Amino acid sequence: MLAALGSAIGLGNVWRFAYVVGENGGGAFILAYLVCVVLLGLPLMIGELAAGRAAGPDPIGTFRRIAPAAPWRWAGIPGVAAAVVILAYYPVVAGWVGTYLARYALDGTALPAGADPAAAFGAMIADPVQALAATAAVLAVSAAVVAAGVQRGIETASRILMPLLLVLLLGLAAHALTLPGAGRALDFLFRPDWAALARPATWLAAAGQAFFSLGLAMGILVAYGGYLGPARGIPSKAAMIAAGDTGVALTAGLVIFPAVFSFGFDPAQGATLVFVVLPEVFAALPGGRLIATVFFLLLLIAAITSVISMIEVPVAASGARPGRARAAVALAVAVLACLAAVPAALGFGRLAGLRPAGMAVLDSLDLMASNLLLPLSGIALALCLGWRWRRAEAAESSGLAGPIGLAWLWSLRLVVPLALAVLLVAGFRHG
Ligand code: TRP
User: Fold this and answer.
1) Which atom of ligand 1 is closest in space to residue 87's alpha carbon?
2) Where are the alpha helices (DSSP H) in 177-233?
3) How far is the CA of 310 from the centre of ligand 1 (A)?
């Protein structure tokens, strides 16, 4: 469970959560997000974990075993596709975090004092050498951990470091709430704008963010389910993962939005939001340099544990034994991911002219993974598990029987696929 929490907690909770909350009207999005976590995320998370436990950790083969007939046998493929797309830009953002960490540690500040933060950050991510080097470094460290087979050590470290990240965020939130813009931030975050709540695009973004942040519908949880022993309560574990992940995200929101309103930033500026806002928070804080260094270190570790969980999936699926074979597969995955990440890494500088769907490469990949591939994968997984999996085995593996088991079954059969299908169609049609 700790490994799953390590995979779930990452940039999704801080970087992505803040920017999609800001883009989707604040409180309305948060309400939709909580509903999506409980009604769509939890049933699917239980399903993925239970499927992995019953039919093995291979994120594609598991579904072939559960439902051997076409087209169900391919239910695992969209999720792996989503993971591949995410791996093609997530390390780039992790590289930005690493660059901030290095700058705070070495120079004392991330962005030059007195400069316009948005422009300074834009210049930073436009530098091709730096972007590529930071991305490669993130992937190299992640692959080294997988190759060395020290994930257990990482899990132990996460057991201390992830709670530490939460404690630090809580402390920062307590400080942020004393800023002059705190009142407006609380309004923005917790007073839903009903018009935004009526927009399907808000709900599609909420479902996509929930899946992204929970690490859902991309094979990771199937793999972790495969490593679970027989006597573990999957539903309570899933609830704890969901609660922990959501708690970190909400706390991060309480750090970032008071600062957004206090320092006069645009909450809807997109993927740059936290990188532009956080330096202002730390600059105004006594001991800010040290706090910032620790914060970006913990955030980088959180991001790397997420990348590790992704590299681990193909390594596990390859069946390589610990040792040289394992190291070779981990290295190969990292090199491929690094090549795949080149367009996203250069998309703010050398390749700035490349604007798929009118946005930077990184933003378009992010949108494609979260708002298209993850919902599609969620539909495939829910239908496959709900309709094709032998009910006795599903109940036995999930530990859900009786009326709750029935509610879970019909969530997978109807609620999750129908809701996601409606959101996909309506979300795209009405933008
Ligand atoms: N759950 C992770 C987070 O919140 C993000 C994530 C999802 C991820 N899928 C991934 C990271 C695949 C790397 C690869 O940060």
Assistant:
1) 14
2) 182-190, 194-197, 200-214, 220-226
3) 8
